[in-house]
Specification:
Elements: E1 2-7, H1 13-22, E2 27-31, H2 38-41, E3 44-49, E4 75-78, H3 80-88, E5 92-94, E6 100-108, E7 123-130, E8 133-136, E9 142-147, E10 150-157, E11 162-165, H4 177-188, H5 197-211, E12 217-221, H6 226-239, E13 243-249, H7 257-267, E14 274-278, H8 280-286, H9 293-311, E15 318-322, H10 327-333, E16 359-361, H11 369-379, H12 383-386, H13 406-425, E17 434-448, E18 451-464, E19 472-473, H14 478-491, E20 495-501
Parallel strand pairs: 1-2, 1-3, 3-4, 4-11, 12-13, 12-15, 13-14, 15-16, 18-20
Antiparallel strand pairs: 5-8, 6-7, 6-9, 9-10, 10-11, 17-18, 18-19
Helix pairs in contact: 5-6, 5-11, 6-11, 13-14
């Protein structure tokens, strides 16, 4: 059985799916305009309506089949989902008044299954992000929580098992939000725990075997990162040596990374066939004169495809290409699930050119990074690989703001290596989601050895995150920053100024491009 999440365009929708899975229940996300049919409802144990940026009364509000909340299937509305339920069931909304963004204190009213474990009058901190709110609950519903700025933070129709929350229980900023979700899943919807890495491995292996003809081969773009490595091991378990891994050295990797990846994968004892392709000159040539971030990503994606296309010529009967695409890549690249906003494209999202006869295998496409790491442990992937910080598919190209040249790549490689080396020496590497250097096309005047310099600016970026969808900049010890700044300025010719990025995501992204 499945928890169906209907997406109204919230950037947090994927977090709802993640929290549900963390609680041991399988979940799927479908666009909010999905039609309510017998086929779509037969395996659904519960329904969650996500948040979204629209107002439910707008003329261009997302389409929704109201039969979803008339199926005698337990429903939980979140933020926009709550307002939609109230609107459809005859309640009243207040629009544009008493907006709440950020932390708020909620008081629980009375006793209910939704707030099982809470006492009447208990207060808890939650994360709010809304302009509209429910001003009058519909007939048959009762108020279950309130805040200073919102009289109805939670409501429910107990008889029909339809509940709603104005706050976001899925984000870490609602400390007891996961507890509320658990109450909905197990106390109200009577879900069973049926989701685990072992189940995913078994079902995915069977699915891959059914996809790939027994007389064909498969190629995999292997970077040595967590995602592509776990994807390769999973496919290898399904089809064995018919999987051929290709490690493309783009010339945009970190210092010595090509050699380190090959050595690490060899030590891992994963049994993978790996062929290394040195394509640095091809990528740098394609990027010559390109400065627009989206154009960079698309140029890199095009060359990647060309390399894989060329490699298929030496391997007989290739039918599929494996990619380590994750769900956050999909969410940020294209609005495939609902009316969410496209943030940036990813070179491994969007399919293959029509001229290629290869089909895609993306076994991790619906997973988050932490789920992939858990999966990797189940598959026996070495911990040193699983602990690697995420590295973008386009490599240093998205950390070189402006023009990409071999000289600027080398400068960035040297600066980045120093920063990561010092992060490791301070025993902070495993506490950070990512730590890296960005090189800006900004020159400033400096003084070195009593002489004038006019050189580039490096930016230190270090963030903490659970899944990459949201992130907070990491406070680093002053002595560490002093040491890093001094080393980069003294050891890397071409940089005379070091700054630090202290932006969260949102409003910024983790990478600069």
């Amino acid at each position: 059985m499945t928890v169906l999440i209907l997406d109204f365009g919230s950037q947090y929708t994927q977090l709802i799916a993640r929290r549900v899975r963390e609680l041991g229940v399988y979940s799927e996300i479908k666009p909010c305009w999905t039609e309510c049919t017998a086929e779509h409802t037969k395996e659904v144990q519960a329904i969650i309506l996500s948040g979204g940026p629209a107002s439910v009364t707008d003329a261009d509000a997302p389409k929704f089949d109201k039969r979803w909340i008339e199926q005698n299937i337990p429903v939980l509305g979140v933020c926009y989902g709550m307002q939609l339920i109230a609107h459809l069931k005859g309640g009243k909304l207040s629009q544009g008044e008493n907006r709440e963004y950020g932390f708020a204190t909620v008081q629980v009213e009375g006793k209910s299954k939704l707030f099982s474990g809470f006492d009447a009058g208990d207060k808890t901190t939650v994360w709010m992000s809304h302009g509209d709110h429910v001003a009058e609950v519909p007939h048959g519903f009762e108020a279950m929580a309130s805040s200073e700025g919102c009289p109805f933070v939670a409501m429910g129709n107990v008889a029909k098992k339809i509940y709603a929350l104005q706050f976001h229980p899925e984000v870490v900023h609602s400390p007891r939000g996961k507890e509320v979700l658990s109450n909905f899943l197990f106390e109200i919807a009577q879900c069973e725990k049926n989701w685990a890495a072992e189940n995913f491995i078994e079902s995915t292996v069977q699915r891959i075997r059914s996809m790939v003809p027994q007389d064909s081969n498969v190629i995999c773009g292997l970077s040595g990162g967590v995602d592509s490595t776990v994807a390769a091991v999973l496919v290898h378990r399904a089809i064995g040596d018919r999987l051929h891994c290709i490690f493309v050295d783009t010339g945009l990797l970190r210092k010595h990374e090509g050699d380190e990846v090959m050595e690490m994968l060899g030590r891992g004892g994963l049994g993978l066939q790996i062929h290394r392709v040195d394509a640095g000159s091809r990528f740098l040539s394609a990027l010559q004169g390109v400065t627009d971030p989206e154009a960079k990503r698309k140029s890199i994606g095009k060359v990647f495809i060309e390399v894989f296309e060329s490699e298929t010529q030496r391997i007989p009967h290739v039918s599929h290409l494996v990619q380590g695409t994750l769900y956050p890549d999909v969410i940020e690249s294209v609005s495939v699930r609902g009316p969410s906003v496209t943030i940036k494209s990813h070179h491994n999202v969007g399919g293959l050119p029509d001229r290629m006869k290869l089909k895609l295998i993306e076994p991790l496409r619906e997973l988050f990074k932490d789920e992939v790491r858990a999966l990797g442990r189940q598959l026996g992937v070495p911990d040193e690989l699983l602990r690697r910080q995420p590295f973008p598919g386009p490599g240093l190209a998205v950390r070189l703001v402006g023009e990409i040249t071999p000289e600027r790549v080398k400068i960035l490689q040297e600066a980045d290596a120093i920063f990561v080396e010092e992060i490791r020496a301070a025993d902070l590497y495993d506490t950070l989601w990512q730590a890296f250097v960005v090189l800006l096309p900004v020159r400033s005047v400096g003084v070195m050895g009593d002489g004038r310099t006019y050189e580039q600016t490096a930016v230190l970026r270090a963030v903490r995150s659970e899944d990459g969808m949201t992130a907070e900049w990491a406070y680093l010890p002053q002595e560490l920053l002093r040491r890093v700044s001094s080393r980069i300025s003294n050891e890397v010719r071409g940089i005379n100024r070091v700054t630090m990025d202290i932006s969260n995501k949102p409003p910024a992204t983790i990478e600069w491009e």
